[in-house]
Amino acid sequence: MSTVAETSMTLTPEHDTRPSASVRSRLQDALPKIVLAPSFAATVVFVYGFILWTIYLSFTNSKTFPSYAITGPRAYQRLWRWTFESDPPSSWYTSITNMGIFGFLYIFICLALGLFLAILLDQKIRGEGVLRPIYLYPMALSFIVTGVAWKWFLDPGLGLEQTLHQWGWTSFHFDWIKNKDFVIYTVVIAGVWQASGFIMAMFLAGLRGIDGEIMKAAQIDGATTFQLYRRIVIPLLRPVFLSAFIVLAHLAIKSYDLVVALTSGGPGGSAWLPSNFMYEYTFKRNEMAVGSASAVIMLMTITAIIVPYLYSELREKPR
Amino acid sequence: MSAVTTPARQDTGGTSAKTLNRIVIYGLLALFALFYLMPLFVMLVTSFKTMDEIQNGNMLALPRAPTFEPWLKAWGETCVGLTCAGIKGYFWNSIKMVVPAVLISTLLGALNGYVLTKWRFRGHTLVFGLMLFACFIPFQSVLLPMATILGSLSRFGVTLQNATGFSFGLGNPTVNLVFVHVVYGLGFTTLFFRNYYEAFPTELIKAAQVDGASFFQIFRRIMLPNSMPIFVVTVIYQFTNIWNDFLFASAYAGTGDAMPMTVALNNVVNTSTGVVEYNVNMAAAMIAALPTLLVYVVAGRYFVRGLMAGAVKG
């Protein structure tokens, strides 16, 4: 920080050299707000204004083009009806069921695997510097690339199945990616592959932050390793669990690209998530009001998770 | 379970049981390393094989006669939609979009973070809270209004073009994407700089103010020279996110010559006409992945820090 002190010394006092104009000084006072204003205005208009616009559209009868005559909650009523249309399943039923399956498995497996790998890596491993980047690099790839890679790897005719057949395990059968009932699980596999390394890094940072004295004291008291982790370490990692959960929940609800690249929507749209539903209905099926209603439902879901979290984060340290 | 994870902190009692523990731990770690490396490995070896070898050989086998042909074809010849000029044009589209978007959003984020920590005003928490929440919205909830606005702007651009001979970038898909990425990236860049500047000693700012330094002088001479780490983090974070974006890219530049790399790659891979050239597809995917992978290899530490900062607030 010595450089800071030096640079501050070189600043030349300028206000003595010119006459103090009140307009000028008032401008100086307002300057910080003027600098912040464009960003804030952009956020208000393009985030909150647009959200209101989307909500408005969801109460209209918009099809291919937006229409601005309010016609009531028809889009929501249709979504609600579709929610229970399970035979044959409506695309909305498929989307939200998939969201449930994908969301739960993705979050749960990423947390479990991330924690497990972090604990393993925290055992004074030689070559940790090599392993960590290997676990983490998928996070740098786009969902499209991840999708392309796994699409190939899981393809029954080219990938894993064929490879095992060649190795002599001819009864091996793995065609989830082409199976409408299982295609969503391939999205889980690819999603976990991409994000679990990052969750590992979060847990590892958390583990490294734990006071070694606590661990030593517990060991002296005769705690076994298992007890040590279950009773002391994991409870201490609670904030990391929360952050990781928020990150994963947010990634899960926003997942769109992965489904497109990995499955192209799956057989008959069987791999759709609500984000895919929204895109298809809004831009391809000319059901703008229904698409907007589904976007509003997605937003509400994220809001219910994020707002309490942000509120507590911002309130925690009043400065 | 308890036997497996004996902590290495316990340095006493080295027995054969301990050696076994170590073997199990290393074995598991290696197994997972394989899991993470496998898709990349398969992608890489496939991109160097001939189609003949792909159809008759093993997915995991190394190429018998490595050929660079698929890479050249992906770069310069493969078909994206109806144009068959490779993905090179789309690669440059992405660069042209990413560079300005990253620079503008990062600089604005730095200024916002500076104001929100060192020039606080009543309601600064609310302003920050509103910008922060914007990071988390599903972009589906703004997708359609933005499409409508961009559509109107592009019609206005045509009018301008006719009237003045210059459209001022209105209606240009690349300009549109830069704008969109700046607007929806502001929340994150502001968050990064705000948290970084929060820890920056306010006394220095106060002292400089007493010396008569102005708002921008303090920013340029004091804040900027000490912001290198957070600049690197933010630039990497934004670069990765914007390069990898698919939703905005497909919604606002999903067709035509201006589509970014991710959309072009998806089109290449999902083309249903003709013989599917898996080796070319894999080479195209590798090319799309290279810039962000390179950033990760060169500056992985900062990459992780950025992800963490985006995840753990306060």
TrEMBL record, chain A:
For biological process, the GO terms are: transmembrane transport
Q: How does it sit in the membrane?
A: Multi-pass membrane protein
What is a single Pfam family found in this protein's UniProt entry? BPD_transp_1
> SUPFAM superfamilies from the xrefs?
MetI-like
Q: Does the keyword Transmembrane helix apply?
A: yes
Start and end of every ABC transmembrane type-1 domain?
96-311
Q: Supply one GO CC term from the record.
A: plasma membrane
Transmembrane segment boundaries: 34-56, 99-122, 134-153, 182-207, 228-253, 288-311
Q: Which UniProt keywords apply?
A: Cell membrane, Membrane, Transmembrane, Transmembrane helix, Transport
Q: Is the Membrane keyword given for this protein?
A: yes
Compositional bias (Polar residues) spans? 1-11
The entry sums up its family as follows: Belongs to the binding-protein-dependent transport system permease family.
This chain's protein is named: ABC transmembrane type-1 domain-containing protein
Q: Which organism is it from?
A: Mesorhizobium metallidurans STM 2683
Q: What is the lineage of its organism?
A: Bacteria, Pseudomonadati, Pseudomonadota, Alphaproteobacteria, Hyphomicrobiales
TrEMBL record, chain B:
Q: Which InterPro entries match?
A: MetI-like, MetI-like_sf
Tell me the protein family, please.
Belongs to the binding-protein-dependent transport system permease family.
Q: Where in the cell is it found?
A: Cell membrane
Q: Does the keyword Hydrolase apply?
A: no
Spans traversing the lipid bilayer = 23-45, 97-116, 128-154, 174-197, 218-239, 282-304
Annotated GO CC locations? plasma membrane
- What's its membrane topology? Multi-pass membrane protein
Q: What is its main location?
A: membrane
| ABC transmembrane type-1 domain: residues covered | 91-299
GO terms classed as biological process: transmembrane transport
- KW Transport (keyword) present: yes
Q: Which PANTHER family match?
A: ABC TRANSPORTER PERMEASE PROTEIN (PTHR43879), GLUCOSE IMPORT SYSTEM PERMEASE PROTEIN GLCU (PTHR43879:SF1)
Q: What is this protein called?
A: Binding-protein-dependent transport systems inner membrane component
Record SUPFAM superfamilies: MetI-like (SSF161098)
UniProt keyword annotations, A-Z: Membrane, Transmembrane, Transmembrane helix, Transport
